[in-house]
Amino acid sequence: MSRKEFTLMRASQFFISTLKEAPADAEIISHKLMVRTGMIRRLGSGIYAYMPMGLRVIHKIENIIREEMNRAGAVELLMPLVQPAELWQETGRWQKYGPELLRIKDRHDRDFIIQPTSEEVITDIARNVIKSYRQLPINFYHIQTKFRDERRPRFGLMRGREFTMKDAYSFDRDVDGLKKSYQIMFDAYVKIFTRFGLKFRPVAADNGAIGGSGSHEFHVIAETGEDALVYSRESEYAANMEAAIALPPSAERAAATRSMQKVATPGQKACEDVTNFLNQPLSQSLKVIAAIRTDIAAGEKGHFVVILMRGDHDLNEVKTQKIIGEFRFASESEIIHHLGCPAGYLGPIGLEKREDIALYADHAVTVMSDFICGANEKDMHFTGVNWERDLPLPENIADFRNVVEGDPSPDGKGTLAIQRGIEVGHVFQLGTRYSEDMNASYLDENGKPQLMQMGCYGIGVTRIVGAAIEQNNDDKGIIWPTSIAPFEVVLCPLGYDRSEAVKKTADELYESLKQSGIDVIMDDRGERPGVMFSDWELIGVPHRIVIGDRGLKDGKLEYQGRRDTEATAIPVGDMAQFVI
Ligand code: ATP
Ligand code: MG
Ligand code: MG
Ligand code: MG
């Protein structure tokens, strides 16, 4: 075998395994297509093997991230997957992180965690290796496996439990330095997502106690996104729904506030539905829960969604759930009144439990009631309450709206529009949140110890694979942007083993594309053209070239871009130039 043949990327030697049908558990298109194209294989809930086709895409994403991170002056290292609990105890997150943190023990009964993120470890490293102001600023990053025991792993790689993240951590002398480091990362992210060839939008995100413009999320725009994004059509203003600022009520709004609006309209049928729901046999206790935004103080009006849940005592295992009402401009007491709950049935529950249930609803809701009731118990019926029908369960808290389409933009420029997005990156000014707890300090010019100012910057590497597909697909399959496609060009020779002319042309074209740095694969499997074409359309390779005896008679090859409806005949000699 000649060296040239040996280096050929042949489909027959690569692993290609496409499926006609998607698995039953795949709800969204990207998950379906990833399984159908053989990119991933599920091993357990939220745990996947990255198969050869999928891994190529992941590597391309990682390479772009690496190039831009390095260009921005960040330095790569690799922190361990397994981290000692002691570090997490120092920052209090051992207690606070909740059930998403996977805790394990070694043979000596010592506690460890599998990292969901690496602030503790990097701060520990920094406090040990950084002594002087001369070593700052510095930005360390790694691309590493993460584990988060998500309550609802779903959508394939989009919300896995094990996934790959690029996480970076900057250390600065002061707040000004931190702001600069943050801006450098923000700009690098814009470059990274632009190079992916995806439509994306950076939005201001909630920054908890730190406040200001200290946090942004990067979202890939897609209908199926879990988050709602708010932006002004006429200015730069953009925020996720949680961080979106509602202007003081207009006269119109003020009027609406006076009488509580119930989104669902009353109906007897719905009332029966709810009663039936409550009457289902229960192996465990039943909970009825009103969910409320955490940032709404008692007595304040806001947007409420009331959810019935059935599960074990702590609602760790939610068996069934149903939204029974949605209220805008309502207060807690108005809702209680409206639901007709006997006084005392609704009452705030303990903080720990609140957080637990809040996690279920993706962080931003707090349970305001926790009472056992059921259709079996006297006076605990909900009979007579006017619920109308099932409302779709919001996929995310983003459906609890702060603002609505058409509201005035907070910067006074234009009106707001809403679109959905997938969170693929998050940049955050941490300040001294970690350096304080862990005493990460350096000596300044005067030899005085100062706390380091930190920032952290994540990109969901494997989530991007799903997000890219979610944004780019048609009824035939995936349509990869070239920069992250598993292969850029596929050569489809018709009769590679039968026709000398076809083989020779295909091999030569392969060679010239390869030499131009194009990532090309030769489909030498000997499949029928129909099978071959539909496989590559499904897989989503952006450029296809067909080499057949018929075309070669006229000295032509067939080119078809993945979005083209028809093939174009191109002279053999021009093809390499055409594709490059
Ligand atoms: P989400 O709101 O989707 O749960 P997050 O805000 O908890 O994400 P971060 O802590 O900001 O996530 O992590 C940085 C990035 O890691 C996210 O922007 C996202 O792209 C990715 N990511 C987070 N959780 C997952 C997951 N379960 N599966 C895949 N990627 C994830
Ligand atoms: Mg999360
Ligand atoms: Mg988030
Ligand atoms: Mg985030």
UniProtKB/TrEMBL annotation:
One of its GO terms (biological process) is prolyl-tRNA aminoacylation. Keywords: Aminoacyl-tRNA synthetase, ATP-binding, Cytoplasm, Ligase, Nucleotide-binding, Protein biosynthesis. Its main location: cytoplasm. It is found in: Cytoplasm. HAMAP family: Pro_tRNA_synth_type1 (MF_01569). Belongs to the class-II aminoacyl-tRNA synthetase family. ProS type 1 subfamily. This is Proline--tRNA ligase. It comes from Oxalobacter formigenes OXCC13.
